[in-house]
Design goal:
By secondary structure, this protein is mainly alpha-helical. It has four helices and no strands. It comes from Capsicum annuum.
Length: 144
């Protein structure tokens, strides 16, 4: 077994990196351009700006932004409530019209239940053809 004790190490191994303040302001701006990897909020730009200026820019505008968003959401909500109420009124009007048509002896709204006493000959012939078509459609529906 040959042991070579004269082997020179190619790497310097694992070394500790010194953490120190950055003296050159240009190097901070280069960090901003590199778009550091961050998790969620706050963004890397906000952290760097806060470090440079010492003032959090988000804390100044967050309350006004929140108030603005709240105001917009309240307006949207009230608008949607008005639209919903208008749709409910439309629905109620349609249901009332259906009830009025049924109550006015409109024969349930079906054309084949209309009285034939007041119809002329042409109307009666059209009515008879329509009844025959209805009978044919019903028979086909039963067979299928």
């Amino acid at each position: 077994m040959n042991v070579n004790t004269n082997v020179v190490k190619k790497t310097k191994g694992r070394r500790k990196t010194a953490i120190k303040p950055i003296d050159n302001q240009n190097s901070i701006h280069s960090l901003k351009r590199q778009r550091l990897f961050t998790f969620g909020h706050p963004s890397a730009d906000a952290v760097i700006d806060r470090y440079i200026t010492g003032i959090s820019s988000s804390s100044l505008s967050s309350s006004t932004t929140d108030e603005f968003n709240l105001q917009q959401n309240n307006q949207y909500y009230s608008h949607m409530c008005k639209d919903l109420e208008a749709e409910r009124k439309k629905k109620d009007n349609i249901e009332e019209e259906k009830l009025v048509n049924i109550d006015d002896n409109n024969n349930g709204g079906y054309w084949w239940n209309e009285p034939i006493d007041t119809k002329g000959i042409d109307e009666l012939e059209e009515f008879m053809v329509a009844l025959e078509n209805l009978k044919k459609n019903v028979q086909q529906g039963l067979m299928n």
